[in-house]
Automatic annotation (TrEMBL):
Taxonomic path: Bacteria, Bacillati, Actinomycetota, Actinomycetes, Mycobacteriales
Residues of the Protein kinase domain: 1-235
Species, as recorded: Gordonia asplenii
Transmembrane segments: 265-287
Stretches with biased composition (Low complexity): 316-345
Listed name of the protein: non-specific serine/threonine protein kinase
Pfam families named in the record: Pkinase (PF00069)
Length: 457
């Protein structure tokens, strides 16, 4: 066993959990070849092996408390503290995901808080390679049901989006003090994850929670880091929202056709297996107590943008992402100093489609002008909160409902109306906005002749 200057904790691994040793060491171990993106927020494993027929892990001893204990002792966390913790755990998860590993058991119990709230993600005993369809090496159901993504109850393999879902549940619990769904049985809890809409906090975090806990993994944030970025943007946008009079509210949902659903049979089978199974093991760890003071664009990141009233100069803080598309030469060289002539959108009378926000819905004229779309909301239960949050993050923007606008815009998604936040302008203005904000921002010509989906920049 290696000798370390810092205090270590030695965990004895039962034979049942011996496979967990291999997976845990693949994440944190000193001889690791798989885990090519080490992260300071993963508890390092200094050594592992076998002594007298008993497997062991030698890992850093973390002096502090787990997040579960902190929540039980102090109740909900201050939003700034909650976001800071989520940012650190998101960093650890993204590192694991880059190496093809999925944690599968993200919960407050597996988040350790050391001095000054330095957070560690622990217990990779349930981690497995992305794409592996096993529940565990022994066939048992794993993870904690309160944080398990809907796809975990099906027959397909759970990937990184399952960890994003779980981390969103943790964020909710940090802000609210309770788990997202309350239930008196595992069956009820599984049903809630499968069918109930994400819970609301009635504040600027509602859009973040709604997206992070989307039932379909494709509609969640593309990474844990993107979730953390959106949470930080929501936190930083509170003062901005107060100044602009835009607040996240809850409006009556639009009465629209229900989205098409997949056959429930695979999920039902998976849920039954999960209910009957036994949760086994997990990597042991110990710690000492210490109290510490302390948003195509349904996938678009919420960004902070300032659009000058008399120029097309755009400044923005955008989410760094490995998959972020780079501006084309045309967009990169678009003029940013001209004074454009734009056609202002028509403010629609309050009525069908209006979300009841301080900023009323608009119906732009379909006369061949252009618009840069920075955010789409496609979940009926979260239209108001998502659009309010996006408007707060993009001062000066407007919003519309595409099926009440120009035919060059996609009219619906899975039978549901699409609400979109956008900036109108001439072509140069719109392309400059797209280039500066980046991410999944897209630009469209507003008319009734252009085909749907034609990108103009």
């Amino acid at each position: 066993m290696s000798v370390n200057a810092e205090l270590d904790f030695v965990s004895i691994i039962t034979q049942t959990n011996s496979c967990a040793l291999t997976r845990a060491c693949a994440v944190s171990g000193p001889t690791n070849t798989e885990y090519t993106h080490p992260d300071p927020h993963v508890v390092p494993i200094h050594d592992f092996g076998e002594i007298d027929g008993r497997l062991f892990l030698d890992m850093r001893l973390v002096d502090g408390q787990d997040l579960r204990t902190a929540l039980k002792s102090n109740g909900p966390l201050e939003p700034a503290r909650a976001v800071a913790i989520v940012e650190q755990i998101a960093s650890a998860l993204d590192a694991a995901h880059r190496s093809g590993l999925v944690h599968r058991d993200v919960k407050p119990d597996n988040i350790l808080l050391a001095h000054n709230d330095f957070a560690y993600l622990v217990d990779f005993g349930l981690a497995q390679a992305a794409g592996d369809s096993r529940l565990t090496s022994t066939g048992s159901a794993v993870g904690s049901f309160a944080y398990m993504a809907p796809e975990r109850f099906g027959v397909t393999a759970a990937g990184p989006p399952a960890d994003v879902y779980a981390l969103t549940c943790v964020l909710y619990e940090c802000l609210c003090g309770t788990q997202p769904f309350s239930a008196t049985s595992i069956e009820q809890l599984i049903g809630a994850h499968l069918h109930q809409p994400p819970p609301l906090l009635h504040n600027m975090f509602d859009a973040v929670i709604a997206k992070g806990m989307a039932k379909d993994p494709a509609y969640r944030y593309p990474s844990a880091g993107a979730l953390a970025y959106a949470a930080r943007a929501a936190l930083d946008g509170r003062a901005l929202a107060a100044a602009t009079g835009i607040h996240a509210g809850v409006a009556s949902p639009i009465h629209a056709p229900a989205p098409r659903e997949r056959s429930p049979l695979p999920l039902a089978i998976g849920a039954l297996v999960a209910v009957l199974a036994v949760v086994v093991g997990g990597t042991a760890w110990a710690l000492t107590s210490r109290s510490d003071d302390t948003a195509r664009t349904s996938d678009a990141a919420l960004t902070t943008a300032s659009i000058m009233a008399t120029t097309t100069t755009v400044t923005a803080t955008t989410m760094p992402s490995a998959t972020k598309p780079q501006p084309t030469d045309d967009t990169a060289t678009a003029s940013t100093t001209s004074t454009p002539t734009t056609t202002s959108p028509v403010r629609a009378a309050r009525g069908v489609g209006d979300l009841g926000l301080p900023t009323p819905i608009t119906r732009p004229t379909c006369d061949g002008t252009y618009a840069a779309f920075v955010y789409n909301a496609t979940a009926p239960g979260a239209y108001a909160s998502e659009i309010a949050a996006a408007l707060a993050q993009h001062p000066g923007a407007s919003y519309l409902r595409t099926d009440q606008s120009c035919s060059s815009l996609r009219q619906a998604l899975n039978g549901n109306p699409i609400y979109a936040v956008y900036f109108p302008g001439d072509l140069a203005t719109v392309c400059a906005i797209k280039a500066r904000i980046g991410g999944h921002t897209y630009a469209r010509r507003l008319d009734n002749a252009t085909a749907v989906g034609v990108e103009v920049c």
